[in-house]
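Protein record
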Amino acid sequence: MGTVATILKWIVRVENGGLLNIAFEKVSTTITSETEFDVSKDLMGKTIDFAKRALMLKEIPLPILKEIPESLGGGKAGVDDAHSHPNREPVLFFITIGVFLAVVILQFASCCCLGCGIKKSKKNRKTKNYGSFGRKGEEEILENLITEESPETHSKRRIHRIVYLIVLALGVTFLAASVILTIIYFSSTALVVNYLETKPEKPSEEIPLTLPDGLRITREHMAKFFNRGITMGKKQTSDSIDALLRKINGEMSSQINMTVDNILIHLEVGQVLQKGKETLANVDKFKVYTSKIASNIKTVKIEITDLRDSMKITKQEFDDAYRTSPNCQAPGQCDQLKKETNKIICPIEPDAINTDSTDQLITHLNTMQMDLQNQMNDIEKAIADIHGSTENIVDSVQKQINLDSTMKPIDQFWDDANKMSKDIMKNLDDTIGTVEEELPKYLKFIRIGFYILGGVFIFMLIIAALIAVHLIFRALTGHIFSSSKFNDAPKIKKDICGQGPICCCSILFIPILLMLAIITAVLLFSMTLVSGEGCIYVVRESAISKADFVMNGYIAHLWKSMMEGDGLGDAGEFLNLKSPRNILYALNNVCARSTVEHGVGLLRSVGYDNLVDVEKLVESNQVADGINQGRESLIDQIKQLDVPSQLPRADELDNMQKQLNEAFDKVDIKELLKISHPDQLNIMEFKNLHSNLKTALASDPTFIKPIDSLEGVIQQMEKLKKSLTDTHEAMKKSETHVEDMKKVVAETITVLKITISKANDEQELLGKVAGEYDVMTNYIIEFIKNYGDKLFMRLTQVLLPCQDAHIAYAAVTKVSCGDSGGISLLLGLVYVLALNVLFIALVYITLFNLAYAQARLIHLVNC
């Protein structure tokens, strides 16, 4: 095998595309910019023309090499280099033919020239030396010859003896080499037969040693590749799709929640709730404040009433004292005092203070607070209902968009791939079955043919060996190595004519040698052509790149029709099913790095960055229709929520505001401020009155009690003034609070009215819903593009782990084109066959020359 590899290395000077130039032809196409190829239509004619041109040493047409880029060793530069350095298959053919022709010519010349020369010399010798003595005289003369010989004759004998020994050594050497080559021939035929033979036991090694082993390993690993790859691929794809759908659904749920929130923002319900809560808090504070003021007013009113009653009693006591006091009985006496005590009158009329208006205000505030709280509760409930219905909205939208159904063809790809793999395996099984069934039928004929040819070699070697033994025996018994003549020497006739049978055998074997030479040369040329111009393009890395370029173009040419057929059904709709590239390099190199733990995906190895065309998926009619249906579903869901019905009516708000304003208006703050002004109580005047009365009437015991009562009134006035001051200040502040309260309520009602107005404007609301939905779907589409593209890109890198595909490819290439493959075995057998024929021819040439040399020696011995 090493010799075969060395010869092939010598033969292949340039990777000129070899048989690719025969098997393929360029296809004129404008569909793509890629060069496309198809199988040659006249394959037999191109093969014959290729061989004819090669044998005629003409430039071989290299159309495929010309199309291969110069970066890969093709193009015009590659063609020029190939024409400048043609491969040497024809050289080997002509060397073989030339060597065998030379041997045959030499054999023929030896038989004709040397054989005829001996006979002529015998005739001349008889005529010259013995004349008319005849045969009897010849024998008598030979028996009576003197043992003496001349120096010249002795020198000739010595030279011929040396030549004889050399030829004898060559003959023995060639005969031994032929025997060894015959043994090698049978070993080679045994290797070839074993290579073709189907063994019943299953080999344990993975490296194929025979054709059946290679086919079996190919079948097993192809089955493993398809079964494992499709099973794992289907699960990985399904898991990836499920993961993507979960991610999409999560994002869609989040986006729909955001959409609902944006719709609520559009309705300004958030501001309504905020304003409502602020208003409720302010109402609650204002109600507490108002309640406190109302309580103060009631307290002041009670105190004023008490003061009025006290003043009445005090005045009555003074009046009674005037009537009973002896100091005031005279006319005009105490009139001035009476006039002063008549001023003991309450300056504030308690009935003028209306506490009902404040109570009504508090009642209205409580009612408004309750109503507003209920409305806020209703709005919060509506928001909660809207958020609660988001799940139903999400489910409805997802159901309408139906990405699960849209992505179903992607998962279905594996069902279609499984169907295709079964068809491939069926064809492979049929092919392997045919080979395994038919090969044994022809194997015995192949074996018989090899044995017959080997038998011919053995037969020729036996004859050659018998001739050699005969000649050696004659040499040993003919005293041809003696320096003297013998009177008991062999008969000249027998010794000289002993070369006749050898001559006849040599002449008879010449046609056989010519036939074997032609067969051997043709086989050598054919096998080296297949190996040097074919096999290297599936095993040698630099040549694989050229074969891959052609295969890329060939597959690209077939791909469109394959995709338009039923090969992948609906699965190809959203798949990046471009034609694969560099399949041979992937199977030979990239997949060799694949392991069970770290699988290299075949799809990634042959140029697929992403199996799924995510952009095409999201822009498909199915997704567009689903989005439109999802929009309608969302609008229907929003309609069913009936948001306006969950909000208060505008007239209710107007009525509430009106009642509250009326309640505010009923509380006459200015009048209350006027009535409750503390300056109305002139305490100093009453103190002066008390002081004057006490001074004037100090000696009259009748006025002790009224004066004390007046002092008590003064104390009440002081207390009341303090209450009036506090109440008055609070009421002054309440005037500002009332305006603020009116403003807050007005703002809240305004915001509520805006929300109600937007909710009642269905066209605007649904337009907003549609707009928000479009924003959401645009986001989802971009999310699917980004996340889905990355997800399916990672998936594509591991799909169809190709370790088994590499083993199957390696098995096929090794069993056919490997160093111990069938082509190498056959080529080695042909080499051995050629050497056998050559050395057998040399054996017969040597034997004939040995016989001639021996005859000359016998002649010289007996001269």
Residues 269-389+649-736 form one domain. Residues 408-477 form the longest helix (70 residues). Confidence is low (pLDDT under 50) at residues 116-148, 486-499.
